Amino acid sequence: MTINTLSQDGVQRQQMPCLTKMERMIISMQDPDMGIKLRNQRLLITVIPHAMTGVDIVEWLIKKFSISDEEALHVGQLFIKYGYIYPLKEPRNLILKADDSSYRFQTPYYWMSTRWPASELDYAIYLAKKNIRKQGELIEYEKECYNALHKRINHTWDFVVMQAREQLRASKQRRKADRIVLECQEQAYWLVNRPPPGTQDSIDHGPERRTMNTRVQLNAEFYKKEIEHNRISLARNRVKSSICLESYVKYCEQYQPHDPIMQGCLPSNPWITDDIMFWNMTSETVALPTKLRVERWSFCFMELLNDPMGRKEFLTYLEKEFSAENLCFWQACEDVRHGETAKIPEKVDEVYKQFLAPGASRWVNIDSKTMEKTLEGLKRPHRFVLDDAQMHIYFLMKKDSYPRYLKSELYKNLLARAIVPQETKKSVFPFMRRQRHSSPSPALATQTAEDDGKAKNSNSNSGTASRL
Amino acid sequence: MGEMEQMKKEAEALKTQIEAARKAVHDTDMASAAAGVAPAPQVQLKTRKTLKGHLAKIYAMHWSTDNRLMVSASQDGKLLIWDSHSGNKVNAVPLKSSWVMTCAYAPSGNLVASGGLDNMCTVYNLKTPVIKTVKELDAHTGYLSCARFLSDTEILTSSGDTTCALWDLETGKQKTVFLNHVGDCMCLSLSPDMNSFVSGACDSLAKLWDVRDGQCKQTFQGHTSDINAISFIPSGNAIITGSDDCTCKMYDIRADQEVICYQDAALNSGVTSLALSTSGRLIFAGYDDFNCNIWDSLKGEKVGVLSGHDNRVSCTGVPEDGMCVCTGSWDSFLKIWN
């Protein structure tokens, strides 16, 4: 009882796995002994059999699954949205009310798993029946659909009208109660499968894919490119899996203390405690950075460069070493790469004057080959014209200045002065559960006893820095 | 015809050789490499915020680099900019076409973009007194499935017309068109150094492209159905893909092959979206069965589930500071978890 779709290569995939689960529940709800007690329901002057109230549904769910009121109402609501249960009194209002409003189970004939996607032809017949039965019974959007269908499947319209007439004739021969039930079922099916505009369409599946397959021609030209591409690919250098995976494992381990979801964060996660101290302490313009932040600069050169505060510190260090022009050059190149296209020629010219021209005030030391190539490229400046030179200076800094910076007094001092925030605890409510983490942050171990006392005495959420 | 058949055979033969070369360097698997690592704890994340405001399916969301603002796109024809921590809607951008499939926030925070069945990518400026449309990028011949800003002057798009494109936002024209996929491109992800990006498509292949020269550098195969979601890991050395074949895979770029597959016999619905935690250890993957499953990327095991949505989870995102996960769903709600 599941919807299966075959994808292009014949791979079967369950389209909506939730439907199996829903149908299992629906079946047990209809069990004659353990299911919901059904009774007759008066609808105007007719008596509809096998109906239940909203309260019945909710209570049955609560009892069967030991869930809360809210959840039972929510789950019951899903059955209505997906067309397994429908309301009797207000059919257009597809919601579950936990009162004595009447509901019925939809017949398996109209279940999503048996009858999806709804066919256009069936919809046309349904609308035609409505139209024939009582002129003007179609609502506005139904009229529009009807007219659109009339245009689209005009060639089978005779068949549509004939079928509609047949079905109407057959239904007249049924008992009134049966007829009303069948009409209700059919209407409920179409309300789910062709919802009025403005209401949520629970079962729509997104736009069609693979309509463009014809765009790419699998011709000789295509295969020529494929061969070329494969040749280049074959010749490429591949690194051993062991090396790649080892570096991945190392990365995860190194960054774990910096992963708030894995290991929490100090003073507290703003999403949990509603205290934004963390964001204040890690902002760009803070006076003293946190220890974690300064540690991160030692992981790799890009980490240092990506943090504006790190860049500033590094610049200070380089100034002492009289090689600050390297970082300035690198930054200027970044500006060219990511800035406005219109300004590129003038920016590149500026860079040349300041850093590359012979006798320039902030001349950078690039090897002659790269310098020659760059100068040639400057005749026709584009976004990436300074890439080679930038890369050269980047590696220079990475191999030389960066490791020395990490060993310098400047860095070590900052690391020593950096803040380890104290943990803020959320105001303790009796029914609130604490978040769980893999292991407590190292700072916690020494602070916990103190903090416990603090938390009990105060209700405020403000954190404090340990050293300022 | 004979010539084409021959070329096809040659291409296939080369592919076999490539596979052999890949096998040759595959001297270990993730299970062995991560054997010494402690398993991740069973992660229990709770819903911290539910953002209500959309009236129809949410198709996409994207965090701003300031870690608090985010943009979400829904088929009710609106882009909503949220201050997600307070839950306030900062801005609402009405869309010309309500059939939106993607949205993006520029790293600067000045611009947002959206696109969908209108085949166009529309860029809006959030910083003018009234939100203005800056550009309408109109050259794709298929729906826009994903867009990502490189800066305030460049944007990458992927489209159902099987191409990806790099646009210049000042001229509104395509600077580079990336041609190689044979199926609808469904997703893309920019590398941390912004020199390359990867795209996933309905031809079940993921491709690595060089932004500068427009060439397809590498092709990763292994999936058996449409790739709906793709992301670089934080170090930039590997990518994770999520597919309609119900699995996620990690492909290492230097080893040029699949290194691990995240699958579970009990999971038989397609992956719609994915996001990674800061260390790359946890993968948050949204599925068609209304849940978002959490995978331990090193151990290859499911370590948690985010349930609470009433319909497909269509988008997931982790902000830059890694403090939480956001899921957006076809049930019109966004939930923040931690």
Could you characterize what this model shows?
The complex is a heterodimer of chains A (468) and B (338). With 468 residues, chain A is mostly helical. Chain A folds into three domains: 15-115, Arc Repressor Mutant, subunit A (Orthogonal Bundle); 116-201, Methyltransferase, Methionine Synthase (B12-binding Domains), Chain A, domain 1 (Orthogonal Bundle); 266-417, Regulator of G-protein Signalling 4, domain 2. Helices cover 54% and strands 6% of the residues of chain A. Chain A has helices at 18-29, 54-65, 69-81, 120-133, 140-152, 157-172, 176-193, 220-235, 241-255, 260-263, 270-273, 277-281, 291-296, 301-306, 308-320, 324-338, 344-356, 368-377, 387-407, 409-417, 442-457, and strands at 4-6, 12-14, 39-43, 46-53, 85-87, 102-105. A four-stranded antiparallel sheet of chain A has the order 3-4-6-5. In chain A, strands 1-2 form a two-stranded antiparallel ribbon. The longest helix of chain A has 21 residues, at 387-407. Chain A is elongated and about 105 Å long. Chain A starts with a strand and ends in an 11-residue tail after the last helix. Chain B has two helices and 28 strands. The mean pLDDT of chain B is 92. The longest helix of chain B has 24 residues, at 2-25. Chain B is mainly β and 338 residues long. Chain A: Pfam families: DEP (PF00610), G-gamma (PF00631), RGS (PF00615), RGS_DHEX (PF18148). Chain A: This is Regulator of G-protein signaling 11. Chain A: Residues 438-448, 456-468 have a biased composition (Polar residues).
